[in-house]
Amino acid sequence: MEFSFFFKGIIIGASVSAPVGPIGLLCINRSLTEGRLRGFVSGLGAATADMVFCVIAGFGFTFVSRLLEEHAFWISLVGACGLVFLGLRIFFSKPVEKSCAVTGGDLVHIYVSTFVLTLINPVTILFFVALFTSLGVTLTHMDYPSLTLLITGVLVGAVLWWLLLTGCVSLLHRKLTQKTIRWVNRISGTIVMVLGLLAFLNAVK
């Protein structure tokens, strides 16, 4: 059993999570406007989805990959519409009172919604395959224990990244006024909507 796969997985997990796309922007927005816990739970949902993609790429689930490829148009369309809807919600959302308690239902909803939004981006599988290749991870004839270590490392790397990012961003949370939070929501919502519209145009062209 090669523990190097675990450390390679940490690098892959952090590398996949680091680019600030719509999901990263969502986590940053929630950390700024709603606090560290909500932002981190959002990142945890994204990290779980990344782990699912890693499992598909690593174990070579060709039927799943083929299914995603065959329905790439509809998946991309749903994802684009989801981003536009999310952007609208962020844009019009009211600032959360800083004393407002966090309920388990809130956290479950935040986790599941971010997980689904990340999962409907099948391009991530190709990103994993590219990272596997660049780090010299052999996908064929790999023993399951080593691959399990790799997948675990991906999850750990992604979680550590979101923990660091949301922790740093949330330091500003207590310093923001209600007016500032409204503008953060408007700017973030607009960016997410634009990304959703671009994804929509890319899907239908």
Short description:
By secondary structure, this protein is mostly helical. The protein has one domain (4-71, 97-175). 80% of the residues lie in helices and 0% in strands.
Model description:
By secondary structure, the chain is mainly alpha-helical. It has one domain. The protein contains 9 helices and no strands. It has helices at residues 4-17, 22-34, 36-59, 62-70, 72-92, 104-119, 123-134, 144-170, 178-204. α2 runs antiparallel to α3, α3 packs across α7 (123-134) and α5 packs antiparallel against α9 (178-204). The longest helix has 27 residues, at 144-170. It is globular and about 55 Å long. The N and C termini lie far apart (47 Å).
Could you give the distance between the termini? 47 Å
Largest sheet: none
Number of helices: 9
In percent terms, what proportion of residues is strand? Answer: under 5%
Rg of Cα set = 18 Å
- Flag low-confidence runs: none
The count of strands amounts to 0
Order of helices and strands: HHHHHHHHH
- The protein's oligomeric status is single chain
Helical content band: over 70%
What class do helices, strands and sheet pairing give? mainly alpha
Shape: globular
User: pLDDT average, as an integer?
Assistant: 75
> What is the total domain count?
1
